[in-house]
Amino acid sequence: MKRIFLIVLDSFGIGELPDAEAYGDKGTNTLASVARSSYFSMPHMGKLGLFHIDGVEVGEKESQPLAVIARMREASKGKDTTIGHWEIAGIYSKNPLPTYPEGFPKEILDEFSRRCGRGVICNRPYSGTKVIQDYGDEHVRTGKLIVYTSADSVFQIAAHEEVVPVEELYHCCTIARELLQGENGVGRVIARPFSGTSGAYVRTPRRHDYSLIPPSVTMLDQLSEHGYTVAAVGKIRDIFAGKGITEAVYTKNNEEGIARTLEYLEKDFEGLCFINLVDYDMLYGHRNDVDGYAKALSYFDGKLPELMSRLREEDLLMITADHGCDPGYIQSTDHSREYTPFLMYGKKQKPANLGTRDTFSDIGATVLHYFGIEPEFQGTSMLQEER
């Protein structure tokens, strides 16, 4: 019985891509920034080979890494969650998803407001935690929805749970998703419920993402069509709009994501368990919190021996990322255009350093190769000969 556990450490970049300057990201390196923190400790990832990956100049190199390792170059245009995950699964995006640095067009918001039955305030790029402090009182007083965006391709709607019930907020997100198609097809519409009182508003864990439907076949489609389990942990189901996924569990933080992964390691199934650990990006990268990011990585590293101890003879563990979000890059709080790491461990896989790969899609091709499926997209398998 073959199983693959593919873990995405959301935003864990390892150095700027050659075209980073075009994205305003010259000099970014998420790993190098967090490695300067006194809280950074990743000895187990080091044993797998993290510090041997091309371009990585931090950490102690092991004499004999345990994993297959590679540096992954993003072929698609963009640096967001949707495009990164889609490319891992086999989709090349030749154009970046649309962004709205000046806010969304009036005609879209007018129709959105008409269909939702509520007015709109803000409509500009904003920090998700700051926007509820700056606009929360007006929202509570008027019932108008707080609509905002970021440097990413997102349409975000914040609403107090006692003013706009969560189910109504979700319905408004569905309306926005229907409106935002074609040239205005943002990657994600995101529900951002919050609670609390004036001066002390806090976001609640009932966030929900509404993604574009992937435009072409992915490894998830191919696996499920061949009868394999495709289990999504965290926001994976939302990123792929449920396409190709056979079962899913949502999580409120990294700790729960790791706990659900440990539960899946005890289950009997054949196929893929695809996990996103979002805190690195959401809580630390976007807030320039170097120490928080380092602590979260160290926590994952501390759980890695337990994850590996539960792997069965035929299992593979893959660890990668979808983009960067350098918390030490004080010029920005946005995602960064970076290489990502790839580490693959299996009891039968012979360790190897595969250098720098040309596309994240090599990961999807590797997953399918392990199950004897020919990928319907461009990508080269990284499977190695058995020990």
Distance between the termini: 19 Å
Mean pLDDT reading: 96
Number of helices: 12
Major sheet characteristics: 8 strands, mixed
User: Topology as H/E string?
Assistant: EHHEHHEHEEHEEEHEHEHEHHEEEH
Secondary-structure-based class equals: alpha/beta
**What is the radius of gyration?**
20 Å
CATH superfamily assignment of the largest domain? Alkaline Phosphatase, subunit A
| Structure summary, number of beta strands | 14
CATH topology of the largest domain, what is it called? Answer: Alkaline Phosphatase, subunit A
Shape: globular
> Could you tell me the strand content as a percent range?
15-25%
Say what oligomer this is.
single chain
Question: How are the SSEs placed, and which strands pair?
Answer:
Blueprint lengths: L2 E7 L20 H6 L7 H6 L19 E5 L8 H8 L17 H11 L3 E6 L2 H15 L2 E5 L4 E7 L5 H14 L8 E8 L6 E2 L4 E4 L7 H7 L3 E5 L2 H4 L7 E3 L4 H12 L5 E7 L1 H6 L5 H20 L6 E5 L19 E6 L6 E6 L3 H10 L17
Parallel strand pairs: 1-11, 1-12, 2-14, 3-4, 5-6, 9-10, 9-11
Antiparallel strand pairs: 2-13, 4-5, 6-7, 6-8, 12-13
Helix pairs in contact: 4-6, 9-11
Commentary on this structure:
- The chain is α/β, with parallel strands linked by helices and 387 residues long.
- It has 2 domains: 3-95 and 212-370, Alkaline Phosphatase, subunit A (3-Layer(aba) Sandwich); 106-211, 2-Layer Sandwich (Alpha-Beta Plaits), CATH 3.30.70.
- Helices cover 31% and strands 20% of the residues.
- The protein contains 12 helices and 14 strands.
- The strands form 2 sheets. The chain has an 8-stranded mixed sheet with strand order 10-9-11-1-12-13-2-14, with helices on both faces.
- Helix 4 packs across helix 6 and helix 9 packs parallel to helix 11 (290-309).
- 50% of the residues are buried.
